[in-house]
## 1
Amino acid sequence: MRRALWSERFGLTGRGWVVLVPYLWLLLFFVVPFVIVLKISFADLALAIPPYTPLLQWDDHNQLAIKLNFNNYAFLFTNELYFKALLNSLKVAFISSIICLLIGYPMAYGIARAKPATRNVLLLLVILPFWTSLLLRVYAWIGLLKANGVINNVLMSLGLVHEPLAMLYTPFAMYVGIVYSYLPFLILPLYANLEKMDWQLLEAAEDLGCRPWQAFYKITLPLSRNGILAGSMLVFIPAVGEFVIPALLGGPNALMIGRILWDEFFSNRAWPVASAVAILLLLLLVPFMMWYQSIQARESAGAR
Amino acid sequence: MVTPAGAATDTVAAVPANSAGPVKPAPWKDPHAKPYVEIERVTKSFGEFKAVDDVSLKIYKGEIFCLLGASGCGKTTLLRMLGGFETPTSGRILIDGEDMTGVPPYERPVNMMFQSYALFPHMTVEQNVAFGLKQDGVAKGEIKERVATMLDLVKLGEFGKRKPHQLSGGQRQRVALARSLVKRPKLLLLDEPLGALDKKLREHTQFELISIQDKLGVTFVVVTHDQEEAMTLASRIGVMNHGEIVQAGTPAEIYEFPSSKFVADFVGSVNIFEGKLIEDEPEYVRIGSEELGGTIYVSHGISAAPEATVWAAVRPEKVFMSTAPPAEGPDNVVRGAVQDIAYLGDLSIYLVKLPTGKVVRVTQPNTSRHAEAITWEQQVYLSWDSTSPVVVTR
């Protein structure tokens, strides 16, 4: 008889190990950093390296003291800047999701209804941009949008405009960047949803008196609800905290929470405040993530 | 003296009147009857491939017309053209005298019951059934009443609030039926209506479908690949092959008087013997068949070129099997050895191998519980009435 391995005594079989690895990964690279950030958010600013006071400290009487500093959070709630930035981030993320949906739905629908052979090519085209770094792609947009960039040059040579349009460093450029970068995240889950759709339902609806657009509105749209929500969440959640695109394309006036966080951390070296911003942002997004999870669960359960 | 063969001749002459059908003369026999659905020389091509090839059909009010054929024979394409989901490449379709060319599905007085049922998964049973009425702007009170009546008719009165995924296959089928009937279409198209049901339920539903059709008087066009289903449901069957209607007629006509080898073989099982006409008289023909290793005597004349190759088709249940040589002969009698037996309870199927190598299928009802059993390898005589073979020339 084989002797049980020491690990099996703790209930760790081969299957357990397979599951353990990703959990360890998450523990090491998500939970531990999160705890550190949480800890810093309760610290006070200090002229030290790292620039904050420790949470646990031995005092003179050999007592271990925990010092929780709530001032960072209080500061966030009293200073209007953060509230405005947060609100603006939510607005930008929301509008970006809507624009992505308006562009992405017809694309996902088109792909789902294409012939299987064409479908793969179209999907590849959607995924293709991922093969280049996000940063490079955003920089490419600078080249397209700037005063003497490609778009302005074409417009001027066609005689459509007489002086370059100011596009770069405007909200317009920021939206272009965000929508462009996050569009595939909306198209893919929506496509996965539409691809499962029974198109005969549309014939049935037409048979019962629906014009094609009515059939779309009454059948396709409600049945793709989960795909719409999942895709929109995948745009909305990361877009709220987006830093790179507003910084590169949106110019100095783009007041986004991710930007504030960066400034607090690197420019002001106010690590505790920056951490508090990060924690608040996370707390704000948790409900959206949970919603997304429940949509995903429903979707894979097949119930509509 | 009247020989058994002679007696049978009289029966043959009387057969067409004998076929199953309504009491009043069938409309398709009446040259003055106005057809309800007219399919005029309809062809549908997909590229080079002709899915439906020059089909003309007249379907009468109140009929259950079955389009029967193997998959890919064009029956579903024809049905979809009636529904408006496909446009004929050439020819036209008239429903109740109106040309349907260019009329989209949502404007046709036609409803369809889809093979997959195509119930809307996000709606309850009631909402599904009410969908078409709502679309037509029928008043709310009337919708409620008509939906309730229809659900009662299909015995789903208590299931109105359920979603399709909470129903069994049979219940879904009835929701689909209710949904397609509630608009009172002039024509109901059914695509393999019983295909997804198990055998017991299918038999039960067949009769239910007929009784509902009888109650509402709607004209049905049914597509099926199941010949048993077609036989039970249909007032008439159109057998399709390679996009063409090869024969249209009542179930009995199709079964007893197939016009070709294909129909004989497709509808029910049959023994087909290839042969040549030896004697061709107005009252009878005699066919010599090498395949059979004997001659076939048929007690009615046929129209075929002399010396032409013909096929005689004999249904397995019309072949008698005996251990002693039958009194008649030598026509219509052969000897063979039992090769295989399948006991089905109500009847048994015997496969008898002739000396020529041809295997003949014989079915015999198990009328007695203690019959002297014929066993494997036993030598038997096979024979049939001179009225039994159907002679076809193609």
## 2
Amino acid sequence: MSDDELERLRKEGAELRDLVRALSAALVRAAAVLPPEAALALGRGGDAGAEPPFGLENWDESIEMTRADVATELELLWKRLPSRESA
Amino acid sequence: MTPRRAAIVVLCWNRWELTRRCLETLKAHTDLEEAAVIAVDNGSTDETPERLREIPWVRVVTLASNLGYVRGNNAGIAAAPKDADVVLLNNDVEIHQDGWLGALREAAHASPDVGVAGCRLVLPDGRLLHAGTYMLADTLWGQQIGALETDVNQYERTRDVEGIVFACAYLRREVLDRIGPLSESFHSYFEDTDFCLRAREAGFRTVVCGAVTLVHREHGSTSDEPDTFEALFQASRKTFGALWGKKLEARYRHELSWQSILNFPTGYAMSCREILRACEAEGIRVAYTYVYGPGTPFPAREDDDARDYFLNAVSRRRSGRRPPVSVVYGQGDVFHRNKGRHRVGYTMLEVDGIPREWVRQANEMDEVWVPSGFNRDAFLASGLKKPVHVVPLGVDIDHFHPGIRGVRNPAGDFVFLANFEWVERKRADMLLKVFNQTFRRRDAAVLVCKIINVNWSTNVRAQIEALALSASGGRIAFLHNREFPYHQLGALYRSADCYVSAGRGEGWDMPLMEAMACGLPTIATDWGAHTEFVHEGISYPLKIRGLLPAGARAPYDEGVRWADPDPEHLAHLLRHVFEHREEAAEKGRRAAAEMAAKWTWNHAARRIAERLDAIGARGG
């Protein structure tokens, strides 16, 4: 696979992720105006729209291992840890 | 009993700013009731002589010209009270720690056979500079232990070393009385190692007191003048070689060829590095060669540079075409590369049977070493006919101990940590799901997974997303394909509160041992080679539901099995540790003590030496 094709696929992947996020956000907004029972029923179908309990936004896909400093990495990790309250 | 007074000798030669900082910090952090301060002005031509005379609490010894480091310090030693110990302190050292002198004195007087005590030295930027020294007979080029590592409080304990740099050296009066001051065969350099070796010959040990850390600016000496430095250094090296070269060679009791892997990020390579160091300390002269490469199951060529002075020196040693004893330390399918007259295959595996090809090659060896009874039993059950000996691995308790500084979670969450390669055996899917289901998002608990994946065909992110973890469940964070310097790994463990190893089986489980040495409570599958060093008194054994056929991408044969860890019990243990933190912390403390008492690399090297003694006694 050429570099150009890889780049195109990466872009498409990013666009799809953005689309899914936008749809999720729209679903949350829709649920907010539903009657409580309806919102609960929707909720039972899953956690759609809630922030996931893990942070993959800064995920590095590379299988090449990056030389890193423990203190720097952990400080970043603690900052991007999903909050307790966001669900 | 009144502590013995010490005379602190500060040798000065110009660079008044350095001396001023040294003396100011010395005064701020030293009880001068316990110490006399002697500044030796080594023929300074700047403002140093005048400024020194203005300081009432400093006794000044003035030398008419620069007599060099050795004779300058000896002038200070001669001026010290005859009943006092002596502390040599370079003027480019700063003190920022109260109680430093008392701690050094305590280390030096901990036993009658301690003669010299040094300390940890750090650079102004915080990197470690020195935690003792060693001298390789191969090169006569002294090395500072720990040099340029990020300081995470490694080498915290007081420990024996071959030598120290005399930027800060506590010399007991008994040693000075016995062997005299620094040898004036040297002008500068090597005199400190020479002193420590002479002290050892006279029956005195040299220690580094890790509880004391001073800042060393490494300026103010001839190292700032390259031409002068080179001339003095090489002259001293020649003198040192003539005095000590043969004696340093004579410390080896054994010669050993070691065929393995060193410069790749693998478990064998990492442990190989530690074994080589520990063997050297145990008096085993090891010559290393790479065992893999073209024609083996791992055809990659190895980088010649280990980025480590000692390991490079060991790699340059020659063991000959047919060394008396050679150990292949790696997978059993490279045993056939063993070139020794007495051939040892040293390996491990995470299942209850050994591949047929490994056993076939093992039966071509004179003996087989494995780290655990678990592997010994697997070999014997798989048809091994040759003698098999348990030679355990170990842990570096200077880099993995409870005093290592971690980076704590600022929100105060209880942190579970797992450190693993993303392969089926590690049961990451189970761990993530169980954690996510056991805790709620609002709980002050988080799981940190340090994951390595070097397989292009495995999309870890997609597999995590496919687990469909609940947004309202326990939170998980990932460190993906981050390679941390080994000397910093302890900081990762010390940033957590509990370590989890919930895989199907282990050939040893070095990360688990490192976490235990760091004093973490651990949850570990109650099956596999690590049961050699893990038990209920120091860990939380995770029950298994039984054994399953092992079907991963690995050289396993039909009928070989691994464990099925119990997810319900894992959930129970995670919750139990979270809710019984003091009990868990106590287990962690006991684990650290047991690792230090029984499972260091020195213990491992002693076991190797015992085997070499036995082989030698048989004429092997």
## 3
Amino acid sequence: MTILLSLIQAICILLGIVILAALLTWVERRLLGFWQDRLGPNRVGWEGTLQVVADMVKIFFKEDWTPPFAEKKLFILAPVIVMATLLLGFAIIPFTPSIGIAADLNIGVLFFLGMTSLSVYGVVLAGWASNSKFSLLGGMRAAAQMISYEVFMGLALIGVVMLTGSFDMVDIVKAQAGLWFVVPQFFGFVLFLIAGIAEAHRLPFDLPEGENELGAGFHTEYSSMKFGMFFVGEYAGIVLISAMTVVLYFGGWQGQFLPPGLWFALKVSVFIAFFILLRAALPRPRYDQLMSYGWKLMLPLAIVNLAVTGAVILG
Amino acid sequence: MYIYSALRTAWLTFLHLFHATETVQYPEQKPKLSPRYRGRIVLTRDPDGEERCVSCYLCAAVCPCDCIDLQKTSEPDKWIPEYFRINFSRCIFCGFCEEACPTSAIQLIPDFEMSEYNRQSLVYEKENLLIAGTGKVPDYNFYRVAGVKGAGANAAPVDPRGLLP
């Protein structure tokens, strides 16, 4: 009975995430519009809320085209990997004290890192299996960028793990009852956020897509719902990174007066809006700049942060 | 330095949330068009209610996209177009015809909502183009200013071969 209940809960959460990710396409376009002194899509439904439905109908009825030169099996597998790994990443997010699929997994943080690392496979395989030069370049960029930013993402959030003494997400949230980890781990937070943006390959780190130089990067050859899965996967990635930031550094569900679920949703939406704001505001760096930021600036900073945190804890 | 400028630009972009939007929501909210706006082309009448067009062909000659077609014919004492058609699927609304017209007959008005489902419907005939009033030039009557009423309007057309040396 409990198994059945938790199964139903898991399905509800995953469906909610997918629907939220789809809705985010509309939220992003509206917010980008406002930030560029436009209105954005506001025609379909109340203030454009049904735009998602219109887009879905459109994308489902497009021709699902697999190019004859593509590596068929991997071509079909790649979007599935991206979507599945990002959705699996939500398994360890504690939404409230009681809601969460496997929130008290004792290797929660490692599971999250593992799933985001696996999602690189989806992008790289998409680039390779498409068998076209734009896709391959995008896939190569994705591989280099995501692997190098993964390194200091892991190092950045080890600070939180050191302070808590646990990989368990619920423990991490409970350890922030007095003080959110954003205060003692401010540099860790900044590094994690930057790595998270690169991990979700959002602007300004969306070089794998780089539409003005690579067509659409790794998903140039994709169409219809296979493209849609990359798209929803990208937004699910934003939600995942935002949720992780909130859980690790902003006290998860904790907060005064409001119910915990609402607090969590509020904090996550602030970060989602921040991601969109970055897209509206920042240009993309050159590719070599991106790599040198990662290896020459972020990685040493993460190591220094780690060393100082360790020294403080021991001292 | 990069961090500072990145945060500053993000903050300035965020403030645009509270700016007024530039968008004009067109079908509900009409744009403000000046009286000189170059939209649909009309043929006007003089204050006496007669057609102003004297079918001099200047508009058709100046038209850069050859969208005006007309044929001269004559009534007693004056020239009028037998037919006058404008193909609005070719017209670029440059207003050259209005500037070329010696009698202020052809004028452009601030109306641009002329979409059609059928391309053929964009060819406007004389009865579609003619309006009842004088348009932008209220008191002008070409024949009264010229002083003559179409002298030689009914003379036989010039034989170009007869002009050869």
